[in-house]
Amino acid sequence: MMSRSMRLKHGGRIARDTTLSFTFDGRRYTGFAGDTLASALLANDVAIIARSFKWHRPRGVLAAGIEEPNALVTVGEGVYGEVNLRATEISLYEGLSARSQNCWPSAGFDMAAVIGFFKPLLPTAFYHKTFKWPSWRWYEKAIRNAAGLGRLAHSPDPDRYCTRFHHCDVLVVGAGEAGLRAALSDAQSGAQVTLIDSDSDMGGSLLWGGGAWYGREDEAHVSSRRLEDILRQLREMSNVRLMQRTLALGCYEDNFVVALERLSDVHGPHLRTPAGCRQRLWKIRAAKLILATGAIERPMVFTKNDLPGVMLCSAVRIYLNRHAAIGGKNVVIFTNNDSAYATALDLHRSGVRVAAVIDVRQAPMSEIVDETRSAGITVYTGHAVARAHGRRKLSAVRIARLKSGAKEFIAGTEFQVKCDLLALSGGWNPTTQLFSQAGGTLRYTEEHACFIPDGSLPSVHCVGAANGDFSPAPAAWIQAFWRAPDAATHKQWVDYSYDVTVADIELAAREGFTSIEHLKRYTAVGMGVDQGKTGNVNALALLGQLTAREPPQVGTTTARPVFHPVRIGAVAGHRVNELGQRYRRLPITWHENHGAPLEDHSGWLRPHCYPHAGEPLQDAVAREASAARDCAALFDSSSLGKIAVFGPDATTFLNRLYINDVTTLKPGRLRYGMMLNENGIIKDDGVFGCIDATNYWVYTSSAGARDIHFWMQEWLQCEWRDLDVSLVPQTAQWATVTVSGPKARTVIAGLGLAVDLAASSFRHMHFCATQWQGQPMWLRRVSFTGELSFELDIAADLGESLWRRLMELGDSHGITPLGMEALDVLRIEKGYLEVGVDTDGETTPLDVGWRAAIDRKTHDFLGRRSLLRPAQQSSDRLQLIGLLPADSDRLLPVGAHALDERAEPIGHVTSSCFSHRLNRSIAMARIRSGYSRIDEMVNVDVDGEHHRAKIGPHVFYDPQGRRLHE
Amino acid sequence: MSDAPQLNRISSFTRRGESACWSSTALHITETETGSKQLLVGNADCLAVALSAALGVGFSLPVRPNTTQGGSVAACIWLNPSQWLLLTSAALAEKVRCALAQLQSNGLGTVLDVSARFCQMTIAGASASDFLSVGCSLDFRLRTFDAGHCAQTRIEQVPVILYRRTLTEFELLVERPLAAYLWRWVQTAAEEFLTQEQR
After folding, report:
1. H or E, element range at A430
2. Are B144 and B162 in contact (CB under 8 A)?
3. How many other CB atoms are there within 10 angstroms of residue A692's CB atom?
């Protein structure tokens, strides 16, 4: 059967000479340039576009803009498919392929609609009450499959997205008449003005018949002329930037607005945009923000008000005047205000039959009502639509006369009117979400039956309809009317998007969910993809009726960003794939050129190990660790944090930061130390070196370098402003190479440094400045392996050369590059803790065996007072100890819980490895009262299996440290 | 084996060692072969006297926050009330170091060589500020960031030092560990500035 054409022969802003072909649910249709998918489907008489979220009810188009709650479709195929798009905001293009979603086999006939028969048994929040036993998870998958929207592709999004920051004096959001005039006014005063609008054309409601609703015959021409005049002036001004297809998503502190620009609507591999991107996320900072975001029309609530063929009056008028498309040929209008009459008159003038206007007001006095009557349109005042009829599409409405007060129908006054389109206007809600996000408050006004901004913010102003300015509306232009008094509340939809009915709100009220925030969470009203743009105010007013409160007493829910759904790709922008993580690179590239796999360690890409061809990684790790113990190993420790601390008060400053005594450190000496935060928790560790009493090097962990520098700055700038100390972060300036092992001294000697390397003169924890190839070098004798070790700092440019030279010098001594994994084995064998691995946000130095150092220090230091609290002094804390599994081959996974004899958790494994040197598995762990449990056995839970392990000291190898001092 | 310092640092990270250079009609980005970078710490007047003597021309340090002082032989970037970053040619570096070492020995200032710490890029062209706005939240309008202004800011969350030489030319310094990431970002973000023919 051929479908009817619902396209008018004349009118509209469509380009009738550009025919576009598209498919919906596999069927081919045509439209015109300037159409949206929704207008093109309406013009092709496609009534059912989607199925509802929960009850799979047939749904058509309700609105004509971003507020559309029903007509959600999937556009594009495969990886280019995009789900949950409103048909009302998709600009038609040649070859567009769209399909309905949440239905099978089609939106017209959906097998899942059978669930509607069970609706009386499944009230709102039924799953909260019902699916508690044995566990929600047991039902979750089936329920998630049954309810839902479009299905995402399982492969990565192939599209690209970009971002841009922008600054302006005035940002105007919304290019309707109020926005255009505000922009013009500010621009004429010399301000740099940016005007953004989500539509592809500027003009807002001027594009479909006039900012006001008093649709006199000449109004369209006047509107059009006004629009062209303002736009021409704005375009001629160099201080004005006009941005179409750009939707403000959120407003944050200090007038920071995030907006999304649609660069292309095409879904497919042939994206062609100037930027090569699908969308651009704008981050706009404006000195002044003007919100001219207009208002969104409310639907009326009555029985079966969700049938396809029920639309908002504004939508009917937009499709008629912009797209020359009509949703029906026999129209009934149901309203509580004057604005709907403009729709009646526009339809009438276009030759569409308006069967009746149903107005709930007993005696509307406006001129436009009289004009409508004069046009021959029947107006029923003091009446309301009780219910819509039709199975899958509207066929008639039942109307009845209201008693005074509009709370009941007068019995026996019911009658039926046939129609195929019912246009609703329940009033207008100013679009105040951005204003609320900016910190603005709202107030309810009886005059307009809606919430409007309660004044302005210092630099945020609402104008036009967004500010509740509905001029030239006459007095008494609207009468609040929240629901037709019909008994079938379970079929009166309030929130189309999440299938919330009046019955659901009644149930919530009965069960005590009388706060609007509770109602929202209990019924999910306003939580759908439309975020309650059409349903929220009706819902809160109905809750008010049920709990004897007026809308202002009920209040509104919180309007959080984002205003409109946004693709996660647009938020990510360029930060995907290899730009997804900001890895730091070592200055030495030898590693990757010699086959070392690089891995993330504290944000640095560092060599995991250096496998020979065909060598398993674990063998390479064992080989490297052995080399460090037996001959020599070379390690790139360039990521070691380095901060130069100098100034007359440098010693005092560091003495306040470290738990160690800094005052006793002699020039040329290093000391291992810890820093705590104010709560006595270990913040970072590392060595620090004294050049002289006013000059120090502070070496931090790789992860901590930046944070520690900022933290030091904070103390100096905010708390200890009397100290004369300067800080310079120097991590990136120096490449650091560590030579470790019994033959390290021999290897280093080959460099020909002017330093006496003899054990008696350059001892463990000594350091000095020297030169290599005429360039400054720092040489330290310090070890993280437990072996004789030298750390050499050289300007980062020379790091590669130094590394190569040391590899040459060590070649005859069996030198081996050492990766992170082998270093980890060596440090666990020695029981060296790693901050952040063997410690967490509760670990104090007392928990890792540092009581003696603290007791020795006579000066105050950061965190000391906290350490004196009884809780920190308690012996019942997690303390760092060693674990030796009874099965020496059993590797204990990091994080595995240790259990006491009653199978209660008493701690967890923090570091673990297989030590080839000791030929057994070893681990470090934090165990409650660990120091008093030495030599006790515990069970370690590994995926449900219990493994016995003996508690011992956490130093497994060379506990006397003899090898360090060789 | 060459022991010469790496001058083109970003190139050493790029795939196949291609040069760190990107160009379109209105945007040119190149890695700047680095000269000397010295961090000066101390009193602006004392440092200026020493510098003027070393450079042989009158030289003052910028004392207004976030400004630079440029000359034919050196450029100086304000970092905080007592620290400046001095950029000179490598040839002048030793002279500057000697002059400031004298100052340092008198306890009037400190100089630290940070030449190897940064990679440097020049971003030039009519679209230079638009390009920077892709990843940097600074307001690049001339009334707030004119030639001679500098900032320690972030581009795509990477800490950088940025200063504007002219209306259409910026210098960008990034610490070398993140230079490879930033360069990859530059290549990606700059694509939207390609001309139609280059696409």
Report:
1. strand A428-430
2. no
3. 12
pLDDT confidence of residue A2: 47
User: What are the DSSP E strand ranges found in A64-132?
Assistant: 72-75, 82-86, 96-100
Least CA distance to B184: which residue of chain A?
A579
What residues are paired with B172 via a beta bridge? B121, B162
CA B9, distance to chain mean position in Å, is 14
Contact call for B192 and A574, based on CB within 8 A? no
> Which two structure tokens, joined as six digits, stand for A678?
């104010």
From A692's Cα to the closest Cα of chain B, the distance in A is 13
Residue B2 clears pLDDT 50, i.e. is over it: no
The ipTM assigned to this model is 0.94
- Rounded distance, CA A685 to CA A545, Å? 64
CB neighbourhood size of A83 (10 A): 19
Closest-CA distance, A646 to chain B, in angstroms, reads 9
pTM: predicted TM-score of the whole model, two decimal places: 0.92
Question: Concatenated DSSP letters for A344-410?
Answer: HHHHHHTT-EEEEEEESSSS---HHHHHHHHTT--EEETEEEEEEE-SSS--EEEEEEBPTTSSSBP
- Measured distance CA(A445)–CA(A944) in Å, rounded: 63
Q: Closest by alpha carbon to B163, among B100, B58, B86?
A: B86
Per DSSP, A461 falls in state: E
CA distance A631 to A200: 72
Peptide bond into A120 cis (omega under 30): no
CB A71 within 8 A of CB A36: no
CB contact under 8 A, A795 and B115: yes
The tokens for A376 are 């021959």
Query: Which residue spans within A704-796 are E strands per DSSP?
Result: 726-729, 734-740, 767-772, 775-780, 789-795
Paired with A699 in beta bridges are: A642
pLDDT for A966: 72
Residue B66 CB neighbour total at 10 angstroms: 17
Backbone angles phi, psi at A786, to 5 degrees: 90, 0
Cβ contacts of A457 within 8 Å, gap of 6 or more: A435, A438, A439, A440
Which residues neighbour A229 within 8 Å (Cβ) at sequence distance 6 or greater? none
